[in-house]
Amino acid sequence: GIVNGMDVSEWDPTKDKFLAANYDITTALEGKALNKEALQAEVGLPVDRKVPLVAFIGRLEEQKGPDVMIAAIPEIVKDEDVQIVLLGTGKKKFERLLKSVEEKFPGKVRAVVRFNAPLAHQMMAGADVLAV
């Protein structure tokens, strides 16, 4: 089986090789902000520290809730100044739906439907909110 959890050394923000800026508890606020800006630029969203950035990383299978996230996105972005980045692969219907949501909300939603470990690290370090 696959062990759940994460390698705390690999994902340590003080030395994570995939981050634009490493940080620790004393530099977390500035480090997170720099990583957020780098993430926004990387995925093609407007770079703005003040806009809340939500990240979803996961397999696109019913048990992981992409259908719930896809249904919620229009409600979230219609009245709020917010950005959403989604990363994952899985069922083709969910991949198509994510790309469709991205097309409906340019400048607010980015859907990356491929495996991309470096981007997952960047999303964890740069997002203001993680949707699980």
Domain count: the total is 1
Unreliable spans: none
Number of strands: 4
Report the biggest beta sheet as strand number plus sense, adding barrel if it closes. 4 strands, parallel
The CATH topology name reads: Rossmann fold
Within the largest sheet, what's the order of strands? Answer: 3-2-1-4
Rounded radius of gyration (Å): 15 Å
CATH superfamily: Glycogen Phosphorylase B
User: If helices are DSSP runs of H or I spanning 4 or more residues, what is the number of helices?
Assistant: 4
Class per helix and strand makeup: alpha/beta
Short note summarizing the structure:
By secondary structure, the protein is α/β, with parallel strands linked by helices. The protein is built from 4 helices and 4 strands; from the N terminus they run H-E-H-E-H-E-H-E. The longest helix is centred in the first third of the chain and has 16 residues.
